Amino acid sequence: MGSFISSSILLLFLLFPTIIQHAKPAMSLPLSTNSRWIVDEEGRRVKLACVNWVSHLEPVVAEGLSKQPMDMIAKRIVTMGFNCVRFTWPLFLITNDSLASLTVRQSFQRLGLLESIAGIQSNNPSIIDVSLIKAYQAVVSSLGKNDVMVILDNHLSKPGWCCSNFDGNGFFGDQYFNPDLWITGLTRMATLFNGVTNVVGMSLRNELRGPKQNVNDWYRYMQKGAEAVHSANPDVLVILSGLSYDSDLSFIQNRPVQLSFSGKLVFEVHWYGFSDGQAWVTGNPNQVCGRVAKDMMRRSGFLVDQGYPLFVSEYGVDQRGTNVNDNRYLNCFLGVVAELDLDWALWTLVGSYYLREGVIGLNEYYGVLNYNWCETRNSSFIERISALQSPFRGPGLSETKLHKVIFHPSTGLCVIRKSFLDPLRLGPCADSESWSYSSDKTLVVKGTYFCLQADESGTLAKLGIFCSDSNSKWEMIADSKMHLSSKLRNGKSICLDVDSSNAIVTNSCKCISKDNTCDPASQWFKLVDSTRSRSEEQSFLHFDSIFDLPGKGFLSNLMVGSI
């Protein structure tokens, strides 16, 4: 019997090597930092692909527990591809005795939310009569049982919706923001979750803002807060936000943070479409993307080059897909995040709120779950961000040599090719070909002589072996640096594009001028550095079935230099 089992295991290895080779290794906690990367205990890159779960509003209970059991919500998070939750909490939860002593039932009763009480009694009866902090712990525990990491985010002090410049929660010294009480709260929270393995980080404060904000007090108190958290819980990542609603960390460039510990510091930034008003609607998308992306690099993106992890802890869009400002912003955002391979947290998981700004049962259109928390609001959005839920590169991820993938932000897909007979098209980034981009602007499939070529406007892009002509040179153009442009032999400039069947074609470049009525999304691409190997073991360039190809067609194509 033993001999049979051994032989069976050996046969399994022989027959299914790719399954074993590409099995996703379990991460080893706690997390730390290695230059700009977040890594596990084995030194392997861990990409935070998080979703924000709100627990800082007036009830001080994780949203949605009246709609679904917390375990089902946790499982839904995993199903959608997220590995992490940024879990918000108000400071008074841990520092205000009268609030902290309330049970979940009492918290909802004082707000008159009787329907929510009935819902929690039905879906999560185990927490209805426990204290608010115990209910918070129960959610963290449920996420841990489902292998979901948690970042504890101190969102504000007084429970309620965030944020405004004059809500008393914005900056040190504001009405509800006593720095000493804040450090006490951070210390208590860090101590409470010391030893809770899936709590991997603490975000010290959300969106510092308001008329009192200044750089000197930022250093004074954020460094104190960081030291307090690390002293109470040395395992967690310490995550620092910037000024101006967490859009500005530019002051770090010339004045590094001074801490007694190392290997745990992460910076966070927020980036929404509405951060720039209605610029995405009123302006030319190429110009707006170029300007906004450049500004983001100046204010926070530079940290990556300085060797710090940068966590985009909030971004999001109206999930209904009807907000033009959001839609255009998202195309640019996903391109930048893919290119930099940043960690991130989507706003928000929430499908509806118990009570938000005086409205009971408010529908959250930025939420990935629907009103009843039972289904995704927009499944195509989840598919679109799925490629960014896995790292492209980083320590311990050198599955293959460094190469480029051609990423298409509008779809979340990459340029692939299945065989000699199939055209280049969009497909899962896990199946992308490996490209090299040379100094002479040639895109070549790595390990081959085949380069990307343009034929005529309105036709399929192709691969060829004669790569010295202008139609084999590709340059990133426009302010956005997202159009891949080439010149045909007749001197006409064209851009890589995608047709209705997701085939890769070339067309006249669009939206290059100041026109704000057009949308360049189909022509936006990013060349992304990657060390991922393909999920498919065999590239289309293997010749196993070459004799099955139509001989004349194959040979004639090869003779003219294109496949």
TrEMBL record:
What keywords are assigned to this protein? Glycosidase, Hydrolase, Signal
- Which part of the chain is the Glycoside hydrolase family domain? 69-349
GO BP annotations, alphabetical order: polysaccharide catabolic process
Q: Gene3D superfamilies, from UniProt?
A: 2.80.10.50, Glycosidases (3.20.20.80)
Q: What GO molecular function terms would the record report?
A: hydrolase activity, hydrolyzing O-glycosyl compounds
InterPro entries from the UniProt entry: GH, Glyco_hydro_5, Ricin_B-like_lectins
Query: Which N-terminal residues, if any, form the signal peptide?
Result: 1-25
Give the UniProt family note.
Answer: Belongs to the glycosyl hydrolase 5 (cellulase A) family.
Q: What is this protein called?
A: Glycoside hydrolase family 5 domain-containing protein
